[in-house]
Amino acid sequence: MADSDPALRSPRAAALSLQFPFRSTLPPGELPSPLPTKRTRTYSATVRANAGPVFKGACKDFSRSQGRGFIRPAHGGDDIFFHISDIEGEYVPVEGDEVTYKVCPIPPKNVKVQAVEVTLTHLKAGAKHETWSGQIIST
Hints:
This protein has one helix at 43-51, and strands at residues 55-63, 68-73, 80-83, 87-88, 98-105, 113-122, 128-130, 136-138. By secondary structure, the protein is mostly beta strands.
């Protein structure tokens, strides 16, 4: 039996292309992002982050279309990256929102950290906030 025989194929069946579910089709020469998301973070990194202290800061910026943002720590220092999958709660963060977060090292060198378990604690007054479902709420 040959798959190329038209008599053996259903007229409605499209050609199947099986792919490993976690691989994306990247342009040639482009590497996948090394930044771990909530879905791809290892169990041990998650345990270490959960056991760590809670920090406070303010949302510096957030891009919903790019799925990332940065937090300005309350204690000062460099801005901290956070991924859309690490945001807890129903509101999309905007600049000036106060947040709490924990940190997790970014592999492979584990020199920099990213914010995880990001929770909005105080919405910026006078700003329009959007829920993840798209409702606009003025504060």
